[in-house]
Records
---
Amino acid sequence: MPSKTSIKIKQSGKQGRQAGRPIRFRSSSEEVLMNWDIWIRQFHRWLSIIFTAVVAAIFITLGVGVEPAYWVYLMPLIPLALLILSGLYLFALPYAGRWRSGRRTA
Ligand code: HEM
C-alpha cells in the first residue's frame, strides 16, 4: 500500500514536467544562477571525497608504520580550503535565494 506522499509524488510526476527535462525558471539569469549553485554543490561533494581519501591515506600510511614526509600532512589543506569556500557559498544559498526573490518583487 503506497503512502499518501508517494501517491502525491506519482501524480505530480504525471501532471508536472516531463522526466529528464530541465525545470524552467522565470528568467534566464535565474537559470544561470541555479546551474551555478548545482555546479558548486557537485564540486563540494566530490571535493569532500578527495579530502576524505587523502586523510584516510595518511592514516593508513601511519598504520603500516611509514612516517610520511611533512608536505604530505599539508596536502588535505588544499581540498579543505576549497571545501570551506564552497561550503560557505552553500550555506549562504538559502539566504541569497530570499534576497534574490526580494529584489525581483521590489
Ligand atoms: C569546512 C567547511 C565546510 C562548510 C562551511 C560546509 C558547508 C556545507 C553546507 C552549507 C552544505 C549544504 C547543506 C544543505 O544542503 O543545505 C554542505 C553540504 C555538504 N558537505 Fe560540506 N561544508 C564544509 C566541509 C565539508 C567537509 C570537510 C566535508 C566532507 C569531508 C563536507 C561534505 C559535504 C557533503 C557531502 C555535502 C552534501 C552535498 C550535496 O548536497 O550534494 N563538507 N556543506
Note: The mean pLDDT is 81.
---
Amino acid sequence: MPTVPTAPALTLSAARPHPLAVEAFFDDRTGTVSYVLSDPATRQAAIVDPVLDFDLKSGRTTTTQADRLLAHLDAHRLSLQWILETHAHADHLSAAHHLQGRAGGRIAIGEHIREVQATFRKLYNLEREFLPDGRQFDHLFQDGETFFIGEIEACALHVPGHTPADMAYRIADAVWVGDTLFMPDVGTARADFPGGDAATLFRSIRRLLALPGDTRLFVCHDYPPAGRAPAWETTVADQRARNIHVHDGVSEVDFVALRQGRDAHLDVPTLILPSIQVNIRAGQLPPPECDGVSYLKIPLNVLAAGPDAATGAPPLPNGSASSDGPAATDD
Ligand SMILES: [Fe+2]
C-alpha cells in the first residue's frame, strides 16, 4: 500500500502578495473541470487538467475545450507557465501537449506517474521506445515540493489512493484536489484502478481535510445529482460536515467497506483504454506509423467487462470493474 504522509504539508508562506485568479471550465461530456489559475500581478498562469475532446466512434480528436482555455489566456493576456495534471485520467484524453504547442508552459505531474506508466506499458504492450521514467513530462513533483505561479506560492501534495500517482495542488488559499474528493453530495473517487487502494485514499483525504476549515477546495469532476447544476468549489469545513462518504465520524474501516462495495458495481470507464495510453505520454498521441497516422491500441480480453456487460470476465488488473461518464462514475 502506498504511504501517505500523516501531516498536511503546510509549507506556504504567510505572505500572499496577490489574490489568485481562478476560472473554471466544465466539460459536460466527461464531467471534468479544467482551470486557468493566474497571478494578476505578473500575468503568469497555470492550467489544471485540460481536456482534449475525443469522439470514440470516429476516432477524431478536436480542441473545443482546449480552445476555451486558450481564448481565456488570450483575453487576459496571460502567459502559460505550467500545465498541471493531477493524475493520468481514465475518463478523458489530456490536452496538455496540444496546449503546450500553442501556448508553451511546462507539463507537470507527480513523480509516481512512473508506476502508472510501468503498469500500462505492460498492459498495452507499448513500443520499446516508451520508457516508464516520466521523461514524457517536463517536471515530476515530489510530495511537499513548492513552486510558483508568477509570485504566488504553491505546493504539490501526493494524495494516492485513486491511483498511485495522484497529486493535489495547494495554491494560495485553495487546493485543487484532483480525484480524491468530489462535491459533498457526490462523495469520493473510486479506488479500484491498478495501484489504487481505498484505505490509502481515505488517508489522503483526511490529510486534505486536516487543512484549515476555510480552505477552498476545487474538484476535478462533478456528476451532479438530478436537479443540481454542475459545481466544483467547496471547502474543507463543508466536506467535513457533509461529504456523503467521508464526513467527520466516518472511520477508515467504514470508508473502505463503502468504497469497495461501490467500486464493485461501477462500470468500466468508456474512455479508459484510449485515455490512459495518451495521458501517460503527457497528452501526446502515440508515434505515427509508417503511413503518418497515429493509432490507439485496444488490448483484447485483458480488462474486465463491467457489471453492465453481464460477463463472467475477471476484474480490472487491480481487482474490480469500474465506471465513467457524467451519469454514474467515480472517476
Ligand atoms: Fe481519475
Note: The chain has seven helices and 15 strands.
